[in-house]
Write the structure tokens for this entry.
Amino acid sequence: MATTHTKSAARAMMAPSVIALLIWMAVPLAMTLYYSTLGYSLYNPISTPFVGFDNYSYFLSDPTFSAALVNTLILVVGVLCITVGGGILVALLLDQDFYGVNVVRLLVIAPFFVMPTVAALVWKNMMMNPVYGVIGQFLSSIGLQPIDWMTEVPLLSIIIIVAWQWLPFATLILLTALQSLSSDQKEAAEMDGAGALSIFWYITLPHMSRAITVVILIQTIFLLSIFAEILVTTNGGPGSQSTNLTYLVYQQAISFGDVGAASAGGIVAVILANIVAIFLVRLIGKNLDA
């Protein structure tokens, strides 16, 4: 049983890490809050008048903000649908015993270790290019008109690229959960006359519910801040068709030189991300306690 002395020693050993973590989080947030109240432009950094909440009003009233917010939600929901649905199917496939299953599992997980910028460039130039891309060549070979993905369906293109990167993560988590399912339950259901679909719906899927919850929570946190894939493929365009909140903040700071508005946008993005996180934890986090 831990004594008062050992508890004090444990707190003392943890204190440096906790303090460093707080500083690492609190200082950037405080600086962002500070700059969000200033009229700070990169084109005139000497003049930084206090403007109060004007930057927030400007950012929230920008027509691009509503488009970016909708694009962010579509991006998150679209990627989650593909990765969770596809992850379940791939996990069920990899749970089977066939020749070379270990090699296939390694190949399926490999895309998760590809850097986002590299993955986006590969998809943009080698897969989705309408002239010499693999998809364009295939469509031309069967007599169909190639699609200019980055111009005609830019947001869908980003969803496909990001989903390809995150599908291995979902598959790995779901496969781990699937392998912990006792075969006795399936055998008993089969003896009672249950079909494959019934076994999946009433036994396998409920068993994977916790893993699905973990996948959704973790991926949502990261998907709200997708940036590199947009930067190297569509640059948020055409217009603002593929601009999300993260890229909009980048545009305000780098393209327009408005650090004050970008800081206000960053605070707005943090608030919205926390709202989404709290909503998800309340809505589906109960599965973790079940």
In short: The chain has one domain: 56-289. The mean pLDDT is 88. Residues 91 and 175 are 5 Å apart (CA to CA). Residues 56-289 form a domain with the MetI-like fold fold (CATH 1.10.3720.10).
